[in-house]
Amino acid sequence: MFTSILCLGGIGLIASLTLGFAAKKFAVEVDPREAAIMDALPGANCGACGQAGCSGYAKAVAEGRLAPNLCTPGGSSTLEAIAAILGIEASAAEPVVAVVKCQGDNEKAMPKYQYLGLTDCNAAQKIADGPKACPGGCLGLGSCERICPFDAIHINDKGLAVVDRNKCTGCGKCVSVCPRGVISLAPKSVTTHVLCNSHDKGALVRKYCQVGCIGCMICKKTVPEGYVIENFLASVVYEKPEGIETAIGKCPMKCIHDYATPAQKTAVEPDSAA
Amino acid sequence: MSLKTFAGGLHPPDSKSYSEHKAIEACPLPEELVIPAMQHIGAPAEICVGKGDLVKKGTVIANAKGFVSVPIHASTSGEVIAVEPRMHPSGKLLPAVVIKPDGEDAWDESLKGGNPDDLDAEALKKKILACGIVGLGGATFPAHVKLSPPADKKIDTLILNGVECEPYLTADHRLMLEESERLIDGINILRKVLGIERAVIGIESNKPDAIAKLGKECIAHKIEVVPLEVKYPQGAEKQLIDAVTGRQVPSGCLPMDAGVVVQNVGTAAAVSDAIRLGHPLVERIATVTGPGIKEPKNLKIAVGTPLQHLVDQCGGLVGEPGKIIMGGPMMGQTQLSLEAPAIRGTSGLLIFRKEDIDTREAGPCIRCGRCVSVCPIHLQPTLLAAYARLDLIDEAESANALDCIECGCCTYICPATLPLVQSIRYAKGGIMAKRRKS
Amino acid sequence: MNNQLYLSSSPHIHSGETTDKIMRLVIYALVPAVLVSLYSFGLPALIVILICTIGCVVFEALANKAMKRSCTIKDGSAALTGILLALNLPPTSPWWLALLGAAIAILIGKQVYGGLGSNPFNPALVARVVLLISFPVQMTAWTAPAILSTRLDGISMATPLGLAKEGVMLTGQLPEIVHTGLLDFFLGNSAGSLGEMSAIALLLGGLFLLFKKVISWHTPVAYILTVVIFSGIFWLVDPTKYPSPLFHLFTGGLMLGAFFMATDMVTTPVTGRGMLIFGFGCGILTVLIRLFGGYPEGVSFAILLMNAATPLIDRYTRPKIYGQMAPQKA
Question: Percent of chain A at pLDDT above 90?
Fold first, then answer.
């Protein structure tokens, strides 16, 4: 009994001494600011800053190679923390979130064909340009959902990607993975958006989607400063958001949506989209 | 006697009985021909006619652009009624020349044939390029490129691909039976172009009539006919070379690196027409078949004939169509509709009914290893698919994803019905994108 | 526009081979062994088999529900695990032991890793080994099969491997039965867990699987040959101390292991060469444990240990791809 306690204790002692010695002897010199910045970062390794992960970005910022305001997920609080560590003044970029510019779910948008195969938007897009008749609409196979490091975008039960604006940090991973370019980053303060990504002419859009923008210009007539129409597709002018929500009720296709009032029955409810 | 073959592969039911005994029939011209500029691997041809132009059969309507490209010709005489984006077999709207036939079907008078003995290899090659000859097995690789190996690659064998390992398709089979003279003439011309003696026709043993007929006729020309074991993908270039010569094409290289040039039997026949008659590649033999076709046939069709017209020639559809496939069931391309035209690479039109379609969802991989044992390249498809799923592009690259020939054996055999080929294709796309970036 | 057409990536035909079919065939292959066990041990055997099988299926369904996955009991893998587990238990196993085994097999052996296809170890063997270590008394309470016993509740009796080990330990010599009982062991007239006593029934099932091409020959052949050769060496050295290769073949779980456990696709290598190495490793370990280990039987441990080595084997047995050995004689 005593021997075994002695043995095990001895092994433990030797091991701990070795470890302690190794930690001192082989310690790597790190800029203490780098470690501090690393702690201030969210640690999601999302790559929004352009680096492979948070530690790479922390190193780059500590060495002064990159600006401290590139971490969109961290937002202003992270920026303030980094600024304090570096002893500099920094102005935060305006927080952004991802917006899925499509409301054409399985019930409202027509399929082009019945897709069989890999559950992945990029794989499906390779087959005759994707299974949805609309060339810009959300395919709903969830490439964005799988790549999101923050669990902030999901495919709903009708096959449409929906962003959780509270969780979204604006890192932009979903934007780059989407083969149809239906997701874009927009200032978080702007809550009214035209949720359509089809540049087809109105008559064609009507054929395949019940909630697609037909480029009728009514929104622009209502709020001339707040909307632009390009290639038969309206979009919001982010710099001039005053009063854009007044056009919501006027849109004949109900494709303008205000995220500030999620309960509002714009076009999220199927029954209102006749 | 054990027949020659390669390692790996499998035996899907060949389903050739639909059409293997049907003689080739000439398909009448449709109301309008839609001839896309994109019909071969490489750079698409540049359209050089406009609306209202009158063309003859064989008139150039699009010029080759670059070395790996060929010109495209009018498939009949008539008027160009439109040059616009039209539905392409790839499912996209791509530039095409629309011709309204005048019913004369008159050849362009400027096209002159000649005796191959009077021409040297270079002149023959030029003529093959001018006539737009591409590989007719389905890959549509420009023939003159394959026939122009760099000086340091010594070619000693010409292999004619008469394997037709894709189930359902019988176009090459019928060609070997009915048009063996053109075929043998084409082989002789190809031998002259390459300056070699040895020519081998590889035929799977499920076509004993073709083996017997060609075997008899080829003796006088010193062309070998090699019966091969029935196994898919015996007709894939690299597998065919392995089966016939026992040589392997080094990874990432071309058949010429193994001293071999492979051409489809249909291509050889087209070469004969190009040299003897001066006729460009404007028609081909295609099999219209499948459980969704009333009366399967082997048709000689004009390039640009809409698929709907082919179906009409075969008595129409049976039941509700589920999948429309251009090419064979293992490597063919599904179609959005019957609107697209048949092009130079269209070896067949295969239609399955709705009830023939397997819509089961894929299950988890149970690591049964069947995909590994059937892969003719000896890859590990399940591993590559897993890499693709996890976006591990570098790992997929080091596991030789780019060597995949997309033959479909792994997906065919997978008990979990995983779309392995599609996953590997996805990984290949990722690797190519990465290479372009760096 | 006809938007009801199916479009997909090639190929467009399928062999018809499915996971369910494979599982079903393996279950069919186990029928002879199950019948022998029912004949030999009667009602208690039936109860153990039923509890294990139903238990596994129910636990699988519960796990699917808890993890919000689609229900996977239809693929038959849970039922198969249940039957294999039952065949690995003694006929006298109390109901709670069988049920606990089912829970361990499905929950700890399989579902925590993500379900079918993701588990590194054979679930049935995980359960058996956990039970063997935790409940050594219940797990080694063997009874003689009905043929040898006139009473239905059976008399207790050691397994042939147990007898051999005991004999060598106590007297330094093998008991007589090791030399004379071979035919009985082969047919199944010996004590043991439900599924391991009849080598012939298992062999039949194994041959059926080989014939149906559900399993490839590599693993069982490598496993069995290795056991024969390796144990044969010891036997030649000292036949009084080491049992003959035939004894090793016909006793214990070797047949069950070689044909049904070491061929479990999920937990074994995918290439032919890998399977040969896997079988070889199992064979060596089995013989070593049987002859020199603390337990009389080593098949379960051997296979589990080799399961752990599977990723490594897979890594080093990647097939040489086409064109990488091109003989450049052109």
Answer: 47
Q: Which residue has the higher pLDDT, A27 or B147?
A: B147
Position A33 scores a pLDDT of 84
* Residue B160: per-residue pLDDT: 94
Q: First and final CA of chain B: distance in angstroms? A: 52
In this prediction, what percent of chain B has a pLDDT beyond 70?
100
Inform me whether the pLDDT recorded for A266 exceeds 60. no
CA distance C242 to C81: 33
> From the CA atom positions of chain A, what is the Rg in Å?
25
Question: What pLDDT is recorded for position C2?
Answer: 65
Radius of gyration (C-alpha) of chain C in whole angstroms: 21
- Within 5-24 of C, beta carbons closer than 8 Å to A belong to 5-9
Separation in Å, CA of A235 to nearest CA in chain C: 30
Three-state DSSP state, A3: helix
Query: Hey, which residues does B326 pair with through a beta bridge?
Result: B333, B349
- Among B258, B143, B151, B226, which residue's Cα sits nearest to residue B189? B143
CA A228, A234, A238, A242 torsion: positive or negative?
positive
Q: Which pairing describes strands B157-162 and B260-264: parallel, antiparallel, or unpaired?
A: parallel
The crossing angle, in degrees rounded to 10, of helices B171-178 and B180-194 is 90
How far off is chain B from C4, nearest CA to CA, in Å?
8
Residue B81 contacts residue B101 (beta carbons within 8 Å) = no
CA dist A192 and A237 (Å) reads 10
Residues pairing with B317 in the sheet: B293
Contact B359 A128 (CB under 8 A): no
Other beta carbons within 10 Å of A225: 13
Eight-class DSSP state of B362: P
Mean pLDDT for the stretch of residues C223-246: 92
Average pLDDT in chain A: 86
Burial of A15 by CB count in 10 Å (0-12 exposed, 13-18 middle, 19+ buried)?
A: exposed
pLDDT in tens, A14-46: 999 999 998 888 887 778 888 888 888 888 888
Strand, helix or coil for residue C318? coil
C54 CB burial (10 A radius; 0-12, 13-18, 19+) = middle
Question: Residue C152 pLDDT more than 50?
Answer: no
At residue A79, φ and ψ (nearest 5 deg) are: -60, -45
Contact B75, B283 (CB under 8 A): yes
What single-letter amino acid sits at C105? A
> In chain A, what residues touch C9 (CB-CB under 8 Å)?
117-118, 123, 126-127
Asked if A112 and A130 touch (Cβ cutoff 8 Å), the reply is yes
Cα–Cα distance for residue pair B165/C155, rounded to 1 Å:
64
Cβ contacts from A onto B, under 8 A: 30
**Which pTM does this prediction carry?**
0.88
Helices B180-194, B121-130: inter-axial angle, 10-degree rounding: 130
Task: Classify C312 as helix, strand or coil.
Answer: helix
Nearest chain B residue (CA) to A112 = B336
Report the complex ipTM. 0.89
CB-CB under 8 Å, A116 with C3: no
Mean pLDDT of B215-244: 92
Question: Distance (Å, rounded) from C-alpha C229 to C-alpha C284?
Answer: 10
| Euclidean distance between CA atoms A30 and A21, whole angstroms | 18
Bridge partners (DSSP) of residue C8 are A116
**The predicted structure's pLDDT at residue A102:** 94
Rounded to whole angstroms, how far apart are CA atoms B42 and B345? 13
Q: Could you please report the per-residue DSSP string of C158-220? A: --HHHHHHHHHHHHSS--THHHH-HHHHHHT-S--STTTS-HHHHHHHHHHHHHTTSS-SHHH
In Å, what is the CA distance from B192 to each residue of A27, B189, C218? 73, 5, 50
Is the distance from CB of C13 to CB of B330 less than 8 angstroms? yes
Average pLDDT over residues B87-93: 93
